[in-house]
Structures are given as C-alpha cells and as structure tokens.
C-alpha cells in the first residue's frame, strides 16, 4: 500500500498485514443507522474516538504553530489526510445484503475534533443505490490491514433509528476460534498471498444484522 508521507498517513496506510498482524491504533466506535419511511437504509453515521497515543501523534504532526492545540485549520488538514487515506478501504465499512457487498457513496467530508487528548472523527455515508430492508442486511466496521482496531464497547453503540415492524436487530460479535474454523477452506496459502490483499478481517468484525420479513 502507498504511504501518504505523514505520520498519520503511515498509521492509516500501513503495509499489508499478514494473518498474524496486530493493531497499533485503537478506536472506540459508535454507529447510528438511519432507516427511512420506505423501509430502506438511508444513512450510516460513524463516530470514532482514537486512543491517546495515536491522538498525540496526530497532534504533533498537524500542530503547525506548536501551541499544543489543534485549531480549526489544523483539524481540517488532518481530516483531509484521513479522508484520502481511508478512501482506498471504503472508509473501513462493511455493508452486505445476504452476503453480497453493497456499494456506498463516499463521505463528502470528515469532521474532526480533539477532546480530552483524543482525536474524534465523524462522517456519514449513504448506499449508492436503494438498500431496502429485505433478507439479511449486515453492517460493520473493520480495517482490512489489521493496523487499526475499531471497537464497539457495548451493543448499544450500534443503534438503529426507524426500524420498522417485522424487522429484528442483532449485534454479532464473532468468536475468533469459531470464525477461523468456519472459514478454514478459504484460508489457503493462495488466499494470504493474494497481492490484492484479503478480507480476513470481515470474519472477525463486530457487525449489526438487520433481518426483515
């Protein structure tokens, strides 16, 4: 993968990770899913709160006037770098219907703030085409490079507004051992050596499942 030339870019665009890789950046996440009246997913609203160590690295990189504060201009510069870094990875989003990937519209901008020594990132995305609540709609967040660990600390951090009658909501937190066992046939040498990378992180990702009848 390419590096952006900044410390932040290096963290978000780390070299392709192997199956034994471990995260270096940690973020607590919140996801709000908005359903419109037509029983379709309208918007995904993401909020990520990064760990203090990574956040301090961002502060050092973008605090151009060295006042130990990220002003609006400096926060905008950080947001632009993160936006470019995440674009290649669909902003760490995983959206599927009955196991098939759903294309998402990139966010027009990212909003950043710096509170209590932590960088906070917020953005919204929408499905490129109508995403009706039919079958099993699965929504999650994961870093395919394994460099960033994004954690929903409790199930209520993945919320749904406007879920219609006849639909159920479940938060799935895969057991790693079971996930590997269930996908053993896919985990071949060819899978791990694919130059395009792997989607192994999907099988470990916490996800919201919406099932409607």
Describe the structure.
The chain is an alpha+beta fold. It has one domain (7-212). 21% of the residues lie in helices and 35% in strands. The protein contains five helices and twelve strands. It has helices at residues 7-12, 52-62, 72-87, 176-182, 189-192; strands spanning 25-36, 40-50, 93-97, 100-101, 104-105, 111-115, 118-127, 135-141, 148-151, 158-161, 167-172, 207-212. Strands 1, 2, 5, 6, 7, 9 and 10 form a seven-stranded mixed β-sheet that branches. Strands 4-3-8-12-11 form a five-stranded antiparallel β-sheet, with no helix packed on it. The radius of gyration is 18 Å and the shape is globular. The protein starts with 6 loop residues before the first helix and ends with a strand.
Summarize the structure.
This protein has 213 residues and is an alpha+beta fold.
Question: Terminal Cα separation, in Å?
Answer: 42 Å
Instruction: Determine the mean pLDDT.
Output: 83
Query: How does the major sheet shape up?
Result: 7 strands, mixed
- Summarize the helix and strand pattern as letters: HEEHHEEEEEEEEEHHE
How many strands? 12
Number of helices: 5
Structural class estimated from helices and strands: alpha+beta
Radius of gyration (CA) equals 18 Å
Helix content: 10-25%
- Summed up, the domain count is 1
Low-confidence parts: 1-7, 13-20
> What portion of residues belong to β-strands?
25-35%
Shape: globular
């Amino acid at each position: 993968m390419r590096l952006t030339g900044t410390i932040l870019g290096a963290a978000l665009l780390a070299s392709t990770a192997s199956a034994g890789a471990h995260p270096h950046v940690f973020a607590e996440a919140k996801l709000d899913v908005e359903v419109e009246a037509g029983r379709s997913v309208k918007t995904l609203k993401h909020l990520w709160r990064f760990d203090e160590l990574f956040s301090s690295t961002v502060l050092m990189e973008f605090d151009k006037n060295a006042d130990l504060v990220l002003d609006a201009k400096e926060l905008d510069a950080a947001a632009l770098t993160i936006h470019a870094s995440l674009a290649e990875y669909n902003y760490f989003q995983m959206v599927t219907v009955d196991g098939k990937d759903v294309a998402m519209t990139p966010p027009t901008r990212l909003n950043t703030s710096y509170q209590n020594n932590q960088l906070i990132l917020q953005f919204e995305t929408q499905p490129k085409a109508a995403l009706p609540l039919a079958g099993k709609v699965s929504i999650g967040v994961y870093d395919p490079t394994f460099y960033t660990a994004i954690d929903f600390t409790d199930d209520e951090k993945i919320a749904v507004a406007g879920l219609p009658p006849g639909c159920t909501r479940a938060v799935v937190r895969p057991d790693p051992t079971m996930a590997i066992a269930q996908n053993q046939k896919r985990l071949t040498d060819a899978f791990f050596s694919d130059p395009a990378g792997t989607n192994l992180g999907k099988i470990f990702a916490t996800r919201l499942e919406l099932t409607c009848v």
